[in-house]
């Protein structure tokens, strides 16, 4: 009988099959693949968050490359290709960090640089496309880098709008400027930028969460995180202004600061306290943004052309300006939680007070406005959507010119009293020594002589003050009691002559609280206060009505000038910092806005006052003249929202 050997035959079949498959695979791979595709670059949609940033936490003596510098290097080494090819360079901001993304798009007719706002958040949509600002492809990139870092007013010498004439370079005169701004695409883009920065600045003053973000886990006293030791403090002498975007009058300008350590290492973490002021034809304080990566953005609106000196100061580094006091700090002080013994915290050196480059100002030149009508006027009529509002009685932003406060949104100071008007109601100011000065000032104005029947004030630090000397020396070894603060305010509101809708309580719990308590305790105080003041009752008709009838207006804290203190690093003033004052004020204003109270924000006005304070906290009385006029107008309109058209009221209330 014949035997069949199945296994060897099956093995031969499998071997032949595999050989055929391998042959077919190699044939198609060799014949159909395109050699030109083997070195295809990564698609432009792919972004590299850390492309321009050093890998190490601190880069010894190295800066991140400017985009224009990188572009010049690529062009010089012929990485960009033929001279007639063009690439556009776009800057994008990651929501998580300030990593710079690069994209290369092939275009025609010369190199172009598409101008985008740096470190911007979500931009409102517009129907028009974004125009390009082009420069000649044969110009020197080194020269362009120099122009980029000198003064943004000179950028128009290097850029032309739309299609540029090849191989021609000429400055833009006034006539060509008028021709430029007639382009509706240019106008639309510039207006979009202005609207975004306008709302961004107003959102920042009460966005306490963003203010706290770089230091949210680094506020505990005595905590030193890894890489956050003293040797990594920033220095104003080595830090650099790495970018300036100086726009014509009536548009927002920006300055970017790169923090560095004393030994010139580039910082890639946030937590510094920079203050920036522009002084010239007018004076204004910049709104600061900490991007959490070692860069800081100063945004300011200058409406008058001319030369300005920009003064820059570094107060604190490594989140030292945000540090909360120890848990028993209030107990260690007097009855008001103040005047702790010197040396209780050990040696203090956190308050730096360093001027940028030893006090040398950054000189900028603001060109004349390129429009007859201002963007502010346009914004009043075309604000667009508004997702968040606050009952601001005024916008609060403006500039000082010739020792006079001039708001960006012009406020009418004219008012007329109704015929046969009779004085009524009570005006009560509740606050610290600034409130005392305000009451002394309005006592001789029409506010108290014509409008209100009574004008009173309550003087408090943390708790009411009846005798300053006694409050300084009195001690009770007790911790902070928020209910003690709230009860005194409710007692004022419960006074019989305050239980009318014609009465007003101007309330502030500001500067003394950062000195003695931590931030979370202050948050709880404000939240409990709002719940108490908004308490309701059922009247005789069975309708639920407010328990306290008087109008409550929240006045924000004023800016401080701690540099005027006789000693820099004293123990009892350790936690009285610019950052903490701004943080406490931002949270209180945010909470009051959400609760529906009327708000008067005086922080930007006082921060911009060119002469600063007489000491650390007190301003000359004339600084608040516009506030006093505002309160008179408020009363003239029977304690209601100020009479004006809806667009003007809306632009004051919109914050996002």
From TrEMBL:
Lineage: Eukaryota, Metazoa, Cnidaria, Anthozoa, Hexacorallia
PANTHER family reported in the protein's UniProt record: NXPE FAMILY MEMBER (PTHR16165), NXPE FAMILY MEMBER 3 (PTHR16165:SF5)
TM ranges: 12-28
InterPro entries for the chain: Ig-like_fold, Ig_E-set
Region: Disordered, residue numbers: 145-175
Alphabetic keyword roster: Membrane, Transmembrane, Transmembrane helix
Name recorded for this polypeptide: Uncharacterized protein
Domain of life: Eukaryota
Biased composition (Polar residues): 149-175
Signal peptide: none
Record bears the keyword Membrane: yes
